[in-house]
Design goal:
With 106 residues, this protein is α+β, with helices and mostly antiparallel strands. It is built from 3 helices and 4 strands. Helices cover 35% and strands 28% of the residues. Strands 2-3-1-4 form a 4-stranded antiparallel sheet. Helix 1 runs antiparallel to helix 3.
Length: 106
């Protein structure tokens, strides 16, 4: 039996803050966009062990109900306003990826 359920999507960010004061402005503004688009933070900061690749100061994983929701959040006026404050305050690598499709039930 096929299902029409949409796969979740995940916003994954690796961030190193270079200007904590300006980054604080981003942290004040960004939650409005995340709340509007139903974001659920699964990982926010925390201790990490870099095993391969570049070392980042912060690691963030945010769950959305769909890739469309994740992209709408990123492209929203609310997030783009926050992003203006973030862009000069850190270096970042951000991706949005599809989650696994919902499990098929027999």
């Amino acid at each position: 039996m096929m299902t029409n359920e949409v796969s979740k999507a995940y916003w994954i960010a690796f961030v190193t803050v270079t200007d904590p004061e300006a980054y604080g402005d981003y942290q004040q503004l960004a939650p409005a966009a995340f709340a509007k688009y139903g974001a659920e933070f699964l990982v926010r900061g925390g201790a990490a062990d870099t095993l391969e690749g570049q070392t980042w100061q912060r690691h963030v994983v945010i769950s959305f109900d769909s890739k469309e929701q994740a992209l709408a959040c990123y492209n929203s006026p609310e997030y783009q306003n926050a992003r203006e404050h973030r862009s000069a305050a850190c270096t970042a690598n951000i991706v949005i990826v599809d989650g696994q499709p919902p499990a098929q039930k027999a």
